[in-house]
């Protein structure tokens, strides 16, 4: 079986590589010549655990190829996955120009039946635009080539995307015809053999499922952050509250860890897009508007704690451990660290930062306005305080003696609640966390 993936970003590259791992021949297509050249030379453009080895293995076995030619890449393919970017417009809606552009080019080059599958996260109703774009391009060629459209939303978590794809909770496919459903089930048959669930539904429901899932998870995060802030005010301990509600099977213990807000390429964009979709249909999603507002406010919590503790921070140095929006990724999109850095610099402080993989991406986004160091303890040298922003594993058990010797002031602001408050205080540190009153 042969399929094509249009777009070699995070979703496209993981999808193509993991499908190749099951024995499917996969052509990955991208207009970025530099990216394709790097991929052909074994250079992976994103950091994702386990991905590089799978790419190398499947390229070597001839099941995974990379090209800039869509015309060549889709020939002989039974399914063509569109996995291009859908960046948010200024009004929060998803920009579909890359999706529609890909669909148009498919129609201009399609010479055999194929299912055109939208893998990108797109608003409800996008499949109609994709179908129209393909049909219009075919009409310009005076071609009556048959095709189907389908939706196959991804549910990958950055940092564990390979395992998420190979061992999914569920596979959602939105289809209009029996032939499209049959084709997609053939593609995903290896995953069914492992007992995973394929949910077949209509296309609008599949498109909505993706947005609803991410919005629900974002809601849990913002809800818990709001509760954490109230806990600090009333003297409750959010860690205890989290355990108390997480043990309820109706609620569960996932995505209820308080912190400095969610970021990344999915939650912020998808919440905004769903809010905008509702608005265009004359409906207001009040809960999601609150979710978004709470999240934006939460990104200021750590910098506010710093300013409240020190007062004037002009001329002070702050160390930041962790820049990416979450561990095991170099993704800096909507990262809370960017807001924290901006606030500290705005008040006249300096920042020295360390992250295991995302410093290059941070530098690309904000330049040299902060200091980047190659070792976490280089960041804390002469620092007035340490801010833990991203909970990478290497930060979980710090060398307290080294911290004490290097820091100017023994003050720690823990934005992810990974340290033990009692131990911190026993070692002489002034410790601030999320959702607990600091005494």
What report would you give on this structure?
With 439 residues, the chain is an alpha/beta fold. The protein folds into 3 domains: 2-200, NAD(P)-binding Rossmann-like Domain (Rossmann fold), CATH 3.40.50.720; 211-297, Rossmann fold, CATH 3.40.50.720; 299-432, Rossmann fold (3-Layer(aba) Sandwich), CATH 3.40.50.720. It is 45% helix and 14% strand. The chain contains 18 helices and 14 strands. The chain has helices at residues 10-21, 33-40, 51-60, 70-73, 97-109, 126-140, 161-166, 178-192, 203-234, 238-246, 267-280, 286-298, 301-310, 336-346, 359-366, 376-379, 400-406, 421-426, and strands at 2-6, 25-29, 64-67, 79-82, 115-118, 148-151, 170-175, 197-201, 317-321, 350-354, 371-372, 385-388, 411-414, 430-432. The strands form 2 sheets. Strands 3-2-1-4-5-6-7-8 form an 8-stranded mixed β-sheet, with helices on both faces. The protein has a 6-stranded parallel β-sheet with strand order 11-10-9-12-13-14. α9 (203-234) packs across α11, α9 (203-234) crosses α12 and α11 (267-280) packs antiparallel against α12 (286-298). The longest helix has 32 residues, at 203-234. The chain is elongated and about 75 Å long. The model has no long low-confidence stretch (mean pLDDT 94).
Helices and strands in order:
Blueprint: E1 2-6, H1 10-21, E2 25-29, H2 33-40, H3 51-60, E3 64-67, H4 70-73, E4 79-82, H5 97-109, E5 115-118, H6 126-140, E6 148-151, H7 161-166, E7 170-175, H8 178-192, E8 197-201, H9 203-234, H10 238-246, H11 267-280, H12 286-298, H13 301-310, E9 317-321, H14 336-346, E10 350-354, H15 359-366, E11 371-372, H16 376-379, E12 385-388, H17 400-406, E13 411-414, H18 421-426, E14 430-432
Parallel strand pairs: 1-2, 1-4, 2-3, 4-5, 5-6, 7-8, 9-10, 9-12, 10-11, 12-13, 13-14
Antiparallel strand pairs: 6-7
């Amino acid at each position: 079986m042969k399929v094509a993936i249009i777009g070699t970003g995070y979703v496209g590259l993981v999808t193509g590589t993991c499908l190749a791992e099951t024995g499917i021949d996969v052509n990955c297509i991208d207009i970025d010549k530099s990216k394709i050249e790097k991929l052909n030379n074994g250079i992976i453009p994103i950091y994702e655990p386990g991905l590089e080895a799978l790419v190398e293995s499947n390229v070597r076995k001839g099941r995974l190829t990379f090209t800039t030619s869509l015309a060549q890449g889709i020939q002989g393919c039974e399914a063509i996955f569109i996995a291009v970017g859908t960046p948010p417009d200024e009004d929060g809606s998803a920009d579909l120009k890359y999706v529609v552009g890909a669909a148009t080019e498919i129609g201009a080059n399609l010479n055999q039946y194929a299912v055109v599958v939208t893998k990108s996260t797109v608003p409800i109703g996008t499949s109609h635009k994709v179908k129209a774009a393909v049909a219009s391009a075919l009409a310009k060629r005076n071609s009556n080539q048959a095709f189907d459209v389908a939706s196959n939303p991804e549910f990958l978590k950055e940092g564990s995307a390979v395992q998420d794809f190979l061992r999914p909770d569920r596979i959602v496919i939105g289809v209009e015809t029996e032939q499209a459903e049959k084709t997609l089930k053939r593609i995903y048959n290896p995953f069914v053999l492992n007992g995973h669930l394929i949910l077949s539904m209509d296309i609008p429901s599949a498109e909505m499922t993706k947005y609803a899932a991410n919005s629900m998870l974002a809601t849990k995060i913002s809800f818990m952050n709001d509760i954490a802030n109230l806990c600090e005010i009333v003297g409750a301990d959010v860690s205890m509250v989290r355990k108390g509600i997480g043990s309820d099977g109706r609620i569960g213990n996932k995505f209820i860890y308080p912190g400095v807000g969610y970021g990344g390429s999915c939650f912020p964009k998808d919440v905004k897009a769903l809010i905008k979709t509702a608005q265009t249909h004359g409906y207001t999603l009040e809960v999601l508007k609150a979710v978004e507002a709470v999240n934006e406010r939460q990104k200021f919590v750590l910098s506010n704690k710093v300013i409240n503790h020190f007062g004037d921070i002009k001329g002070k140095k702050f160390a930041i451990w962790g820049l990416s929006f979450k561990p095991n990724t170099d993704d800096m999109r909507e990262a809370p660290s960017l807001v924290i850095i901006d606030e500290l610099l705005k008040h006249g402080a300096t920042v020295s930062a360390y992250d295991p993989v995302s410093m290059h991406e941070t530098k690309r986004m904000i330049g040299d306005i902060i200091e980047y160091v190659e070792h976490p303890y280089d960041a804390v040298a002469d620092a007035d305080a340490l801010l833990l922003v991203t909970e990478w594993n290497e930060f979980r058990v710090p060398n307290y003696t080294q911290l004490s010797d290097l820091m100017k002031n023994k003050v720690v602001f823990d934005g992810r609640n990974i340290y033990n408050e009692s131990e911190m205080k026993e070692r002489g540190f002034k410790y601030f966390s999320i959702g607990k009153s600091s005494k």
